[in-house]
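User: Just a sanity check before I run the rest of the batch. Below are the structure tokens for the first item. I only need the designed sequence back.
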């Protein structure tokens, strides 16, 4: 694999100095990091996925190198392209996907139904392509973080071909490969039962069913459940909760749910092939066609409407009035006129349109001018206006022709409307002006024109957002510069009403470093609070924007300021597992012992979420592993409660007390681990001399709790390490009686016979 000259389409072995020096880390996965890099030769952004060989199996990267050229040969619209490898960085070089993973997008934005359907269909297209190869290329690692999004939010499948089932492979070892990657929710039941068959195409179909559920609900499956609980539930036919689906959903959603249930059928032989899934999801996507009209029955309102953009931030949902499907039978009536527009027969339209058509009001109070603008034909717009169309007419929702032109980026029509008297300051029903929409879109060309035609730079919509807020949230630096040149100095500190966030808050939350620098240079206060007392540093630390955190600290942001819950930025970084940010905040004076209102330290929160590397970093920089939080719970209690076995081991190695009792009921970490049915945690605790006969305030021992929850391996481990079967709890019951009362028959037999 010598380095080849040429285009990104050719497989190469890159050297580190093939890339420019500025490597930007955009993601961290369990076995390495993903960087945005730029190739000197092509001047093209790429993603470089490095593998930490100390964490991967010895031969993992070697096998990737061997197979990368085959994987790179896979080229398809809905598959991430592989360009080659970079051996001296132990990394794969691939297509850069600017909008990250679906996992992150669904957590931060609300998607409209048409976009959800489109994403499901595109993902099924990618998987169908892989399965159509001879032999089928199995993914075996399909999950939300491996579905990536391009500039226009189209889906591409990533990380296929990295996990393999090899002849004679131990099934337990295969499961360990999967669970090590955090895939527990996506593994079909036959993988961890006695079924001897190797994984086939139906494995990926099951994973796709879970992906569908996540896209449709925008929730996490089995949230808060331990790995053992998930395995038990799935093996007994349980699936993610169907009550998570919102009540207001299009009727087509029921058909999509039906496909989803077929995908995760307990019997793998009943699951459909991806070819069938593609056909069905294509049909459903056509019904909710993008960017065409959708049926949205909301609060009894049967109007036909659509939403733009398809990506909607939690606060800002922009409704774009799309034109309804147009009939084509009556060529001379008003419907015939609209039909000519829909068919883009603009010559016939201009010949047929009459003054009475211009005055006609269509559904939703739309005028012919609204429809003509949406068609995109400037000559037809001129003609309709020459027949006396009212240039500032509004739809039922307050949209003017100018707003529709701005939303569609119709750069030849926007100046035409303004020349004919379109009001650049007029807002819709939510007081969004054309300037707001242009700022949200990043359309600096239109923005400049609107400002020159009298648009108000600091206009506020109903929730108090100025165009500057929108441009900062969406990362449109040119628009921000343009707006700042037309605004007073105080504008950088203006807050919107709902959350009380300044432009700097928004730029920091969404990771827009250059905009944050620009705002700070214009006098933005790095310590301004929003309504929940969060600063920009809180938001950037929470979202993992390392370079933004560095900039804010450099600009004087307070390291230990607390929000309304008592969280400092360090708490948020620890909770989210942003180890590098924790290191940075601690190095700049952040306190590892600062406490939230519930008494949690950063160590507690990192342990709660199972962030092993973060726990390690906090401990190295002075964090206490035995700190007591609410009810006297230590980080070890929390890690046991969440079944985070690796963190339990890390805390114990750092001298966490295995026999500490919490305040309310006297539970030791071993009690908690038995209740959470966390076998690895139990083993770690026993190996560090946890008292197997410790009693809580109800005189229950770990054995009583293990018997109640019916975990045979835990009961065996406790008995082998000296658990006393004769001890009575406060009700006078032995562990055997507890098992009998709870109908845990295997435990009963075990306790009756002894280990």
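Assistant: Here's the designed sequence for the first item:
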């Amino acid at each position: 694999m010598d380095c080849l000259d040429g285009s990104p389409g050719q497989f190469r072995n890159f050297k580190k100095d093939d890339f420019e020096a500025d490597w930007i880390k955009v993601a961290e996965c369990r076995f390495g990091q993903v960087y945005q890099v730029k190739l000197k030769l092509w001047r093209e952004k790429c993603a470089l996925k490095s593998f930490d060989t100390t964490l991967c199996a010895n031969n993992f990267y070697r096998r990737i190198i061997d197979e990368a050229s085959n994987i790179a040969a896979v080229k398809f619209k809905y598959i991430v392209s592989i360009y080659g490898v970079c051996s001296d960085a132990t990394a794969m070089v691939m297509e850069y996907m600017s909008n990250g993973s679906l996992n992150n997008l669904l957590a931060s934005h609300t998607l409209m139904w048409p976009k959800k359907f489109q994403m499901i269909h595109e993902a099924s297209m990618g998987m169908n392509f892989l399965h159509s190869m001879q032999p089928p290329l199995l993914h075996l690692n399909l999950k939300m973080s491996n579905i990536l999004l391009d500039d226009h939010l189209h889906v591409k499948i990533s990380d296929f071909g990295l996990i393999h089932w090899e002849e004679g492979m131990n099934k337990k070892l295969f499961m360990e490969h999967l669970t090590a990657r955090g895939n527990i929710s996506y593994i079909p039941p036959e993988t961890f039962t006695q079924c001897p068959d190797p994984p086939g195409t139906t494995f990926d179909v099951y994973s796709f069913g879970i992906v569908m559920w996540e896209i449709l609900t925008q929730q996490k499956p089995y949230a808060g459940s331990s790995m053992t609980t998930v395995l038990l539930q799935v093996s007994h036919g349980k699936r993610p909760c169907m009550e998570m689906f919102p009540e207001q959903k299009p009727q087509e959603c029921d058909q999509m749910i039906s496909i989803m249930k077929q995908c995760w059928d307990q019997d793998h032989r009943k699951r459909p092939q991806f070819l069938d899934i593609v056909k069905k999801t294509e049909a459903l996507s056509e019904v909710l066609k993008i960017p065409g009209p959708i049926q949205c029955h909301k609060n009894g309102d049967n109007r036909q409407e659509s939403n733009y953009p398809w990506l909607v931030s939690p606060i800002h949902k922009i409704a774009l009035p799309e034109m309804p499907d147009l009939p084509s039978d009556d060529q001379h009536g008003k419907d015939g006129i609209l039909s000519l527009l829909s068919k883009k027969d603009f010559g016939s339209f201009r010949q047929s349109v009459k003054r009475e058509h211009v005055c006609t009001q269509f559904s939703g109070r739309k005028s012919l001018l609204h429809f003509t603008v949406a068609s995109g034909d400037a000559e037809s717009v001129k003609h309709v206006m020459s027949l006396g169309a009212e240039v500032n007419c509004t739809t039922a929702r307050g949209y003017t022709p100018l707003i529709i032109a701005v939303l569609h980026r119709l750069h030849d029509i926007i100046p035409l409307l303004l020349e004919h008297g379109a009001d650049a300051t007029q807002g819709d029903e939510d007081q969004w002006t054309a300037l707001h929409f242009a700022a949200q879109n990043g359309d600096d060309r239109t923005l400049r024109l609107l400002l020159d035609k009298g648009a108000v730079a600091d206009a506020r919509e109903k929730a108090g957002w100025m165009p500057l807020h929108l441009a900062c949230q969406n990362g449109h630096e040119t628009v921000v510069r343009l707006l700042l040149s037309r605004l007073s100095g105080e504008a950088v500190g203006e807050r919107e009403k709902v959350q009380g966030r300044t432009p700097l808050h928004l730029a920091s939350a969404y990771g827009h470093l250059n905009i944050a620098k620009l705002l700070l240079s214009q006098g933005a206060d790095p310590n301004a609070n929003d309504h929940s007392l969060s600063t920009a540093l809180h938001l950037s630390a929470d979202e993992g924007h390392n370079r933004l955190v560095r900039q804010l600290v450099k600009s004087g942001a307070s390291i230990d300021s607390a929000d309304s819950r008592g969280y400092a930025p360090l708490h948020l970084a620890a909770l989210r597992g942003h180890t590098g940010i924790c290191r940075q905040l601690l190095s700049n004076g952040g306190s590892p012992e600062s406490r939230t209102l519930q008494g949690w330290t950063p160590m507690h929160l990192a342990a709660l979420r199972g962030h092993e590397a973060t726990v390690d970093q906090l401990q190295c920089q002075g964090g206490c592993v035995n700190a007591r939080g609410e009810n006297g719970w230590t980080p070890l209690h929390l890690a046991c409660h969440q079944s985070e076995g690796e963190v339990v081991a890390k805390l114990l190695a750092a001298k966490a007390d295995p026999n500490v009792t919490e305040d309310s009921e006297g539970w030791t970490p071993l009690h908690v681990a038995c209740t959470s049915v966390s076998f690895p945690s139990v083993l770690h605790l026993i190996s560090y001399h946890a008292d197997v006969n410790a009693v809580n305030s109800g005189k229950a021992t770990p054995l009583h709790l293990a018997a109640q929850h019916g975990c045979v391996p835990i009961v065996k481990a406790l008995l082998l390490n000296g658990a006393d079967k004769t001890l009575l709890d406060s009700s006078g019951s032995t562990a055997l009686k507890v098992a009998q009362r709870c109908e845990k028959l295997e435990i009963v037999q075990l306790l009756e016979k002894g280990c």
